[in-house]
Amino acid sequence: MKYAVLIGDGMADFPMDDLGGKTVLQKARTPNMDHIAMNGRMGLARTVPEGMPPGSDVANMSIIGYDPKKYYSGRAPLEAASMGIPLKDSDVAFRCNLVTITDDIITDYSAGHITSVEAMALIEAVNSGLGTDKISFYPGISYRHLMVASGDVGIGAECTPPHDVIGKAKSECMPTGKDSELLCELIDASKMILENHSVNNKRIKAGKDPANYIWLWGQGYAPNFTEFWQLYGMTGSIISAVDLLKGIGIYAGLDIIEVPGATGYLDTNYSGKAEYALKSLKNHDFVFVHIEAPDEAGHMGDVNAKIRAIEDFDKLVVGRILEYARESDEDFTILVLPDHPTPISLKTHTSDPVPFAIYSTADKDPDDAVAFDEESGHQGSLGTVYAADLVQVLIDFN
Description:
The protein has helices at residues 24-27, 31-38, 56-63, 68-71, 76-82, 116-130, 170-173, 180-194, 198-205, 228-232, 243-252, 270-280, 293-300, 303-327, 374-379, 390-395, and strands at 2-8, 41-46, 92-102, 105-108, 135-141, 144-149, 157-158, 176-177, 213-220, 236-239, 255-256, 286-291, 332-337, 354-360, 384-386.
């Protein structure tokens, strides 16, 4: 048996008046996910444990088979693993976004989805200006970067993700609690380094958002994982453009498959991800394929972009994997789901359970679902499942 877990980040949503009372999933044309629903079984997955924040870190950790209540230590250390940044026992990794703040208002959590080349120059300038023997800044991809502080600094601070506070005053959203004074000083000091940097001068002249502040959040220590093959008796791989997902995969002992043109945005290489996933199954039992684009559109509040991202995911990823499964001589099981909702109306994540569908070429007992959407998930025969149990559900499915 081969297994493919296909994750459309943030696909789930709320009914919208502009869509005639439908959700984005119901409005989008998704014949392949609908086929999986109609010929498989559906349910709801609770990807975010009660009391935990509805981040992609917690939600995807659950889907990959790791209970966040046991394994979660913070978002940033997962990204540090992907970036090859070693963490000592007392090192605290922080996510360091490049953001746009205008007249004290947080207007863009991604600085206009700044390019990685531009961002590298800015983060290097920040490290030169603010880095010390105890604090270092590391460039990542686009707006997503890291700061590492030694000596347990900042682990007790309360920090807010920038995508949760768009349109709010910076002064009301800064870090609080233990060591927050230092974190606030770093955020404020970054303005002096960034706002007149040549990269930002060029961006402003081009009509683009400047990356004029850093924003620190998602801190934690390096986690301690049991490897995937030890938990489930099988090997696997993961495909994602997002360092967070790659980091989970590294700690889980999964192969990290790099796909040319995978951007983590609306222009990502959907087809390439599907083809590389199928190639990886020649050597592995499991593959996890993560698509970030629907989530990015949700954070932007762009309903048309979210519909397009979902339709591209359905056609180019789900459709290709489904085609292969139906033609394969080997039994094949597919799980498709979002990691969490990213409602257009809120522009941020919620912890609501998400619909999931399981289709297996060896299963001849589908339930009554007729489409892949939130309503069908509520009516599915599999009920509500704790997402950290989903990998085992797949193994026991047939």
